[in-house]
Amino acid sequence: MVSKLVVLICAVIAGSIGLGVGYYLRFVISLGKKGSMELEIKEMLLAAKEEAKKITADAQSKASLTLEETRKEIKEKEEKLEQAESRIIKKEDLLDKRQTDIDKEAEIIKQRAVEIRQIKERADKLEEDRKKSS
Predict the structure, then answer these.
(1) Alpha carbons 95 and 10: distance in angstroms, whole number
(2) How far apart are alpha carbons 44 and 78 in whole angstroms?
(3) Could you report the per-residue pLDDT of 69-120, keeping only the tens digit for each?
(4) How far apart are alpha carbons 121 and 56 in whole angstroms?
Protein backbone atom coordinates (compact mmCIF):
# COMPACT_ATOMS: atom_id res chain seq x y z
CA MET A 1 0.00 0.00 0.00
CA VAL A 2 2.78 2.35 0.68
CA SER A 3 3.94 1.99 -2.81
CA LYS A 4 0.52 2.86 -4.17
CA LEU A 5 0.45 5.86 -1.89
CA VAL A 6 3.89 6.97 -3.08
CA VAL A 7 2.86 6.47 -6.69
CA LEU A 8 -0.31 8.44 -6.04
CA ILE A 9 1.57 11.28 -4.36
CA CYS A 10 4.15 11.30 -7.15
CA ALA A 11 1.32 11.36 -9.68
CA VAL A 12 -0.35 14.28 -7.89
CA ILE A 13 2.99 16.15 -7.66
CA ALA A 14 3.75 15.40 -11.32
CA GLY A 15 0.25 16.54 -12.32
CA SER A 16 0.64 19.73 -10.30
CA ILE A 17 4.03 20.42 -11.87
CA GLY A 18 2.57 19.66 -15.31
CA LEU A 19 -0.33 22.03 -14.67
CA GLY A 20 2.06 24.77 -13.47
CA VAL A 21 4.41 24.33 -16.45
CA GLY A 22 1.43 24.20 -18.85
CA TYR A 23 -0.07 27.37 -17.36
CA TYR A 24 3.33 29.12 -17.54
CA LEU A 25 3.82 28.05 -21.18
CA ARG A 26 0.30 29.16 -22.04
CA PHE A 27 1.00 32.54 -20.37
CA VAL A 28 4.27 32.94 -22.31
CA ILE A 29 2.62 31.96 -25.61
CA SER A 30 -0.28 34.36 -25.02
CA LEU A 31 2.20 37.17 -24.28
CA GLY A 32 3.98 36.36 -27.53
CA LYS A 33 0.70 36.38 -29.41
CA LYS A 34 -0.32 39.62 -27.73
CA GLY A 35 2.97 41.22 -28.71
CA SER A 36 2.68 39.97 -32.27
CA MET A 37 -0.93 41.22 -32.47
CA GLU A 38 0.08 44.62 -31.16
CA LEU A 39 2.93 44.66 -33.65
CA GLU A 40 0.54 43.68 -36.44
CA ILE A 41 -1.91 46.42 -35.39
CA LYS A 42 0.91 48.99 -35.35
CA GLU A 43 2.04 47.85 -38.79
CA MET A 44 -1.53 48.15 -40.10
CA LEU A 45 -1.83 51.62 -38.55
CA LEU A 46 1.43 52.73 -40.17
CA ALA A 47 0.33 51.30 -43.50
CA ALA A 48 -3.00 53.13 -43.20
CA LYS A 49 -1.24 56.41 -42.37
CA GLU A 50 1.12 56.00 -45.33
CA GLU A 51 -1.84 55.25 -47.61
CA ALA A 52 -3.67 58.33 -46.28
CA LYS A 53 -0.59 60.47 -46.95
CA LYS A 54 -0.34 59.06 -50.46
CA ILE A 55 -4.02 59.70 -51.15
CA THR A 56 -3.73 63.23 -49.75
CA ALA A 57 -0.63 63.94 -51.84
CA ASP A 58 -2.38 62.61 -54.99
CA ALA A 59 -5.45 64.72 -54.26
CA GLN A 60 -3.33 67.83 -53.72
CA SER A 61 -1.44 67.15 -56.94
CA LYS A 62 -4.68 66.72 -58.90
CA ALA A 63 -6.15 69.82 -57.29
CA SER A 64 -3.05 71.82 -58.21
CA LEU A 65 -3.23 70.63 -61.82
CA THR A 66 -6.93 71.39 -62.02
CA LEU A 67 -6.39 74.84 -60.51
CA GLU A 68 -3.56 75.57 -62.95
CA GLU A 69 -5.64 74.42 -65.93
CA THR A 70 -8.56 76.52 -64.75
CA ARG A 71 -6.33 79.56 -64.37
CA LYS A 72 -5.00 79.03 -67.91
CA GLU A 73 -8.54 78.74 -69.28
CA ILE A 74 -9.60 81.89 -67.44
CA LYS A 75 -6.56 83.75 -68.75
CA GLU A 76 -7.26 82.60 -72.32
CA LYS A 77 -10.91 83.65 -72.04
CA GLU A 78 -9.88 87.03 -70.61
CA GLU A 79 -7.44 87.54 -73.50
CA LYS A 80 -10.16 86.62 -76.02
CA LEU A 81 -12.54 88.99 -74.28
CA GLU A 82 -9.96 91.80 -74.40
CA GLN A 83 -9.38 91.14 -78.10
CA ALA A 84 -13.10 91.17 -78.81
CA GLU A 85 -13.50 94.36 -76.78
CA SER A 86 -10.61 95.93 -78.68
CA ARG A 87 -12.20 94.97 -82.02
CA ILE A 88 -15.53 96.39 -80.92
CA ILE A 89 -13.90 99.64 -79.82
CA LYS A 90 -12.09 99.89 -83.17
CA LYS A 91 -15.35 99.26 -85.03
CA GLU A 92 -17.12 101.88 -82.93
CA ASP A 93 -14.34 104.37 -83.67
CA LEU A 94 -14.55 103.56 -87.37
CA LEU A 95 -18.33 103.95 -87.31
CA ASP A 96 -18.01 107.25 -85.45
CA LYS A 97 -15.53 108.47 -88.08
CA ARG A 98 -17.81 107.33 -90.90
CA GLN A 99 -20.77 109.05 -89.26
CA THR A 100 -18.71 112.25 -88.96
CA ASP A 101 -17.71 111.97 -92.61
CA ILE A 102 -21.32 111.35 -93.64
CA ASP A 103 -22.47 114.34 -91.56
CA LYS A 104 -19.82 116.53 -93.25
CA GLU A 105 -20.87 115.31 -96.68
CA ALA A 106 -24.52 115.93 -95.84
CA GLU A 107 -23.67 119.49 -94.77
CA ILE A 108 -21.69 120.02 -97.98
CA ILE A 109 -24.63 118.68 -100.02
CA LYS A 110 -27.00 121.03 -98.18
CA GLN A 111 -24.69 123.96 -98.91
CA ARG A 112 -24.48 122.96 -102.56
CA ALA A 113 -28.24 122.62 -102.72
CA VAL A 114 -28.55 126.14 -101.32
CA GLU A 115 -25.95 127.35 -103.82
CA ILE A 116 -27.78 125.57 -106.65
CA ARG A 117 -31.09 127.16 -105.59
CA GLN A 118 -29.41 130.56 -105.47
CA ILE A 119 -27.85 130.01 -108.90
CA LYS A 120 -31.19 128.81 -110.26
CA GLU A 121 -32.94 131.83 -108.79
CA ARG A 122 -30.33 134.10 -110.40
CA ALA A 123 -30.67 132.22 -113.69
CA ASP A 124 -34.46 132.52 -113.52
CA LYS A 125 -34.14 136.20 -112.67
CA LEU A 126 -31.67 136.75 -115.52
CA GLU A 127 -33.96 134.92 -117.89
CA GLU A 128 -36.91 137.05 -116.77
CA ASP A 129 -34.80 140.18 -117.18
CA ARG A 130 -33.76 139.09 -120.63
CA LYS A 131 -37.34 138.29 -121.59
CA LYS A 132 -38.38 141.70 -120.35
CA SER A 133 -35.63 143.37 -122.25
CA SER A 134 -36.34 141.64 -125.47
Answers:
(1) 125
(2) 50
(3) 999 999 999 999 999 999 999 999 999 999 999 999 999 999 999 999 999 8
(4) 95
